[in-house]
Amino acid sequence: MQAHTPMHQRRIAVTTSPARSVPVVVVSPSESLRIVTSSGQPLLEITYDAKGPSIRLAQEHLKLECPGSLNLSAASISMQSKEDVTIKGKTIRLN
Prior knowledge:
Blueprint: E1 33-36, E2 42-49, E3 52-57
């Protein structure tokens, strides 16, 4: 990869080594990091501005799966849906 290649034209192949080194991609506020399939179909895009980072999922369906616990923590959490919201669980506790 040449240093002068604009970020939107860079293609980065990521492989995992036995040492599990993690590649780092540096982006400026005017750039974004987009992950696509090998056929070019967009999966997600990461951008940031003065408020912080944004992650945009490019597909209509997302499956978030964890074999253990999944914890979300923030000063506030806002959720919106254009359709029904379904929550299933053995016990659902509010407050």
